[in-house]
Target: Magnesium transporter MgtE
Amino acid sequence: MDSTTAQQLALAELVELAQSDLAQGWTERLASALAELHPAEVAGLLEGMPPEPRRATWELVPEDQRGEVLAYVHDEARATLIDEMQPEELVEAAEQMDDEDLAEVLDVLPADLTETVLTALEEDHRRRIEAVLSYPEGTAGRLMSTDVISVRADVTLAVVLRWLRLHLRLPPHTDALMVVGDDGRYLGKLDMGTVVTGDPDSLVADVMEPAAELARAEATESELAALFERRDLISVAVLDAEDRLLGRITIDDVVDVIREEADRRLLKSAGLEEEEDLFAPVIPSARRRGVWLGINLVTVFLAAWVIGRFEDALEKIVALAVLMPVVASMGGIAGSQTLTLTIRGLALNQIADANLRWLLLKELGVGALNGLVWAALVALVAWLWFQSTGLAMVIAVAMMLNLLAAAFSGIAVPIILHRLGIDPALSGAVILTTVTDVVGFLSFLGLASLFLL
Amino acid sequence: MDSTTAQQLALAELVELAQSDLAQGWTERLASALAELHPAEVAGLLEGMPPEPRRATWELVPEDQRGEVLAYVHDEARATLIDEMQPEELVEAAEQMDDEDLAEVLDVLPADLTETVLTALEEDHRRRIEAVLSYPEGTAGRLMSTDVISVRADVTLAVVLRWLRLHLRLPPHTDALMVVGDDGRYLGKLDMGTVVTGDPDSLVADVMEPAAELARAEATESELAALFERRDLISVAVLDAEDRLLGRITIDDVVDVIREEADRRLLKSAGLEEEEDLFAPVIPSARRRGVWLGINLVTVFLAAWVIGRFEDALEKIVALAVLMPVVASMGGIAGSQTLTLTIRGLALNQIADANLRWLLLKELGVGALNGLVWAALVALVAWLWFQSTGLAMVIAVAMMLNLLAAAFSGIAVPIILHRLGIDPALSGAVILTTVTDVVGFLSFLGLASLFLL
Model:
């Protein structure tokens, strides 16, 4: 891989070339290409590699760039990289990182290593990190940067400008300065645009935004994501319970939260852990996923037990065994559509008591309408296949019942789970398909036992 | 609902109160509360309502705020609001909107209304909108704002500052100014921090960032989302093929793209359309979802047909009918775990030819390991239930085979779909469960026919 072309390549091609360089032992060439790449790209490259080449490539990343690369690596792969580092290397990397990134890294370290890194940092840096680490994971306090520029309300813009000029550089993404009172209380924000375009003689108090959005240190990541997304923000002030300014959260960290939330929702729906690394080794992967398979096994044996209650009917009419998956499966599909919409509505906070009845009636209507259409078609196919009017009628009614049950539980299951404080994205689908399997088998085989035997 | 308390409420409570105000005919009280709310909150409130109250509430939003509210409403609900507006109202709303928001609104209007709105706009505004509209939907050109401040490279920072002071206000989220040459070609960006803290006598050319990130007008939304997320950007310049500066894209619009992409992925996995509104009426909802049910019906009849090939075995051993869903279902769950990871890996661009073999072997390993564990357990349960060693052995082998097939197709199906240019998030799960159903029934019933009859 050539260092000049490396910068124009898509990630997958980069992975391709890096692995071929490694395979051919061209480590020097790869090392110089890595040194030229943006740390974000190096992070992507490492994430796109199995453990062995990932380790080899990480060894080739220049030590003075590792901190920056680690900051860009997503949670799931970060731990595997840190495992490879010596304490001295970690300290060097820590010195290059922002507060919030370093806090994330320290989180996954064993306690003694955290201590080593913290004591090696400069007094000031260490104190800032310790402040951030004192807030629980997943809160605004943990996500904030304490590297903030704050100004007084009683000075003029000219003074602010002169004072800013004393800084060599502003913290990244400074779209506004924070205005604080004598007692450290947050008063509002002063837009950088105003600093530049405003009349130099005007007072900060007169041109600042007093009622700007803000976040409390204990706000959750999802609340922050909703706030930033709704209000199109770049940064917000983080305050403690007494309105004192603690730090600032910027959109780039919130973008990571949004991505991680979406990711978590997707992975959870398949019973995967949020930190699942595509390139994790076999045994831990198998163990993590096995739990989900075990839960599913219980529910599928419940369905099998329901079927077992109708051995008699199945023995007499073998067509029942052939057709029963149709009823169960159609219910599962229809139910998962309703479930997905309900889970999204809950996430967007759109489901209130006042509209619940409307929603339920609508979904039952959709279920009934699709039930009619597809029950008729399934009945026709069943009749053509097995030449039995009774069977055709039984499957049609069973299908109707199952689509209505699917619509009802597609709304009820996630809402009940949500009220119980359980995330419906994780267990909603399992419970729902258990319902549609059981109702599907029970109604089809039950009706057949009643009317066809 | 009281206008002062309204601002402190969570969205679901807001919906609750607004609907109770409507039900009791307190429209004036609701109208004054709406006038006090942030337009983003009004947007959320409207999205959380069924069609009837949504329409009634929309009527109460002050006309001079409708443009801003429309800009915050997500795509799925926006169309229902626009339908309610008179052409004059649309024109007034259009005048309050940013280029990129207005372009999105114009997209859903009938051609004659678009014409009416465009001709009513000021010359300058219209020309900007037409430029944005000339790019296809889903590209950087369509997402950009043409409201950009650009400066020359050969002036000093003092000149830039003086010149900025002539503006009453900067465009929102101006973290950097764009530097262009005499011919309109983009040269780089000048950080606002540098403008403020830099030496006033230094030349722009000497303090700008020449190799800053940029986007071509034809770049796709997902490429932009990846760029912003990877590089922690606030804004990028949008250029045409000749490097001329066309506009600027800011992170707030990209956050919407990221949210919509995640949403689309989630909805697609249940065969729902990306613009599905939780409160859409019954008939169109039923029609949209019916398509997916129809596709599923074909695949489940395929599975039923496979079962039908073994009527003979099913007639003789009724336990086969009871246990067959276990084999199929476990394969489906294991396969969907692999599928989810592969789809995510493809989205993150982590799957390259060089690591494909490693991945496949890993997933087969996970499948084999979990296959062994759960096959043993299932065999034990089957043996306890039906007291047949043959049946227990047959189900164990079938389960092993199906988990291996699930691992293989969890990797192969999405990769093949991706290479064919089909989004695996939509059809991957259907194809996968068809494979695991067919392999599950075929291996279990087939082995039973061979060894147990």
